[in-house]
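Running low. Any example?
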Amino acid sequence: MLSEITKRNVALLTDFYELLMMEGYFDFAKKGMKKEPIVTFDVFYRNNPFGNGFAVFCGLNEIIDYISNLRFNDDDIEYLKKYNVFASDFLDYLKNFKFTGSVYAFEEGSIINKKEPVIKIVAPISQAQLIESAMLCLFNHETLIATKAYRICEAARPYGVMEFGLRRAMSFDAGIYGAKAACIAGCIGTSNVLTAKMFDLPALGTMAHSWIMSFDDEFTAFKEFATRYPDMAILLVDTYDTLKSGVPNAIKTFDYMKKNGISSKKYGIRLDSGDLAYLSIEARKMLDEAGYKDAVICASNDLDESLIMSLNAQGAKIGLYGVGTKLITGNGATLGGVYKLSSVYDEEKKEFNPKIKISSNVEKVTNPGNKEVYRVYDENGKLFADLITFSDEKIDESKELILFDPINTWKKRVMEPGKYRVKKMLNAVFEDGKLIYNKKTVAELKKHFEDELETLYEDNKRLTNPKEIYVDLSQKLYDTKIKLLSMYN
């Protein structure tokens, strides 16, 4: 199913200053003062969120829909006229606007690393400028939620995590696309029915306390629910007293189902409050003694990866998790993805001139040029490093490859021929305004992420103090960066 973005006009989903700069470029070109240049912009982030060893790239499908359907309608033009800022010929240009540039990107669901260009835009500068804000909105949100979901699912392994965040999401869109990203990164399904419909995902859920409170007694509430929905008979047992009332009445319900020949593909209980470790251990004993060893114990209640790891350490007997608030909101974190100009095309020399942003804050200094990213795998097929090069550089796998840390340059690694392989990471998505990339389903993106995880060493996947993946620069790119830094200092 197409993204909901395709059904809305979102041309004005941009920052006002983007339009001001866009008109400036248009005006310069119109007056012959300066031809509008072709430029490259890079989308990247500076630090791994949540202290993770990497991030999980999500949002590409929505970026594709956004660019494919970027049009200014008559209402948009009339609205912009009200500012008495934009010239009529510029507004006429917007009426017929169509993105004509090229976009290159990692596969959605890929493991990505800080400071590397995950998306590259090659376009007339006014067009590249216009799409900045919306692209970052989509990239920052979905990548953040996917990365958080990975951490939660990793902590819960081998047990499943259900995404339960809609009611705590910051907006409808945050709930829809956050749930999609969470499922790519490991969640087994979502409570959000619209997301499930849009992306062909399992719609999952249990019951609310209000169902139980609406009946005269807890057993009747459980029995009525289990009889109606025997294959989803996960009973919420903490409305009154978990161990004295909830679990005994759940067992009584399972006895009733057995006596009346009501089979169930999945049944059990859900804990939503209290000491989850203690309650799950005691509930497990009670269920096992009653002969229901295959009854699942599900837990919810403001969980995240830290709490799940703590529950595991305490010997909790939980086989399924429902996670909402701290997943769908990112628990207060941000990705901080940015969109930076990296080169300008020289019409005379027929090449891109590298551009660099310099800052007293070292992490804000950008990598210049029209670039490519190569993923370097070692002799074990594991991800060893990402290597950023200029786009015209080629790596010959029959020769040794020297990698070095761009900050601590004395740290080097020589990859011998036959003991490594490389993979280009930036795939063509749009070329000269034409979409040439086949969007993947969420199931395909989830499988891609699972395959990506298999390429990591265990120390890269640690949730605390992980080993970060090396992101190195080619010698040519490094030398150019140092030369540009010297020019401005």
